[in-house]
Amino acid sequence: MMAQSVVRSVAHFVPSKRVTNEDLSKCMDTSDAWITERTGIKERRFIDTESISTSALGLEAARKAITLAGWEPRDIDLIVAATLSPDYYFPGIGVMIQHQLGCRTIPALDIRAQCSGLVYGLSCIDGYVKSRQAKKILLVCAEVQSPVLDLTTRGREMAVLFGDGAGALCIEAVEGAAFEGRGILDSYLGSDGSGADVLCMKVPGTATPGFLRASDISEARVHPHMDGKVVFKNAVTRLIETATTLLKRNNLQARDIGLLLPHQANLRINEMVREQLGLSPQQVFNNIDRYGNTTAATIPICMSEAMEQGRLQPGTLVMTLAFGAGFTWGGNLMRW
Ligand code: COA
User: Fold this and answer.
1) How confident is the model at residue 213 (pLDDT cuts 50, 70, 90)?
2) Test site for ligand 1: of 157, 299, 329, most ligand atoms within 8 A of the Cβ
3) By residue range, what is the domain housing residue 217?
């Protein structure tokens, strides 16, 4: 019998500092009306002191998730961390979380799949579980993006979209007839690197002569860049491709989905996907209005809030969907 990957707990942590659209309109030429209409975002959270790093946010979410699962840090035998905004250029945040939690010298793996971090992470964890390499796994998705945004009119297309936050899941390998058909049922992942330059932050990096030059800072190249329209179109196409593939190969219909937890990049993207799949608004969980796009952390934050609101009950069929820089995309199908 195959081992199943079951979510034992999920938690999130966001910084307390709320930054409204109105606040942003004081440092750049933008407006609450523009941001709300185009994206659905009303506010986001930014770290309130520059001493808070990505691993520190991730750690807060991880500690909550471990407590909810009734685990101790020494029980964990694998950490998977997903972020595009690590504390250091290297090493990744997985080892920092391993150390700060006081875990044993277990493997700590960092995933660089940007907004698809959670869906790639769950797929990877399910592989470890099915090959019997790990039993108690911590998945941490965390981002501190506010310090790299260009919070001036020049950077407004990107700057209004993103926020800081973290989510964490405790996932356990279980076996036996009682768990048949439970946990992660399937994952579908994709990538297309021809889109790498469409949404990226190139500097600092080895493709830049000198890695990081004084002119890169003075000429504001140390910020993320995006062609929003190209990202938008690709996102809608790939999210629908992912959802229909997962449904088809598991002999399911859209009406069977209990709760869709989509990445939170743009409410219009999620509404288009919902309408094309024929889902009701009650079948989809969105919270972009309060957090903006927290990249790898969006889906775990949604999952944690859905759990708190009682929208994830034993037996609920859950689908995750994500698309992000790379391009990378994918989704997971889970029976709660
Ligand atoms: N405030 C006010 N105006 C802004 C602005 C802001 N924050 N950002 C851009 N603009 C301006 C542009 O300069 C442009 O002006 P112009 O027409 O004079 O050249 C205009 O608004 C563009 O508006 P519009 O064509 O309506 O934008 P859009 O419908 O493409 O929406 C995005 C822009 C960024 C919201 C949208 O493209 C998007 O969400 N793309 C996907 C983003 C995404 O998913 N990213 C993350 C992937 S994980």
Assistant:
1) very high
2) 157
3) 183-335
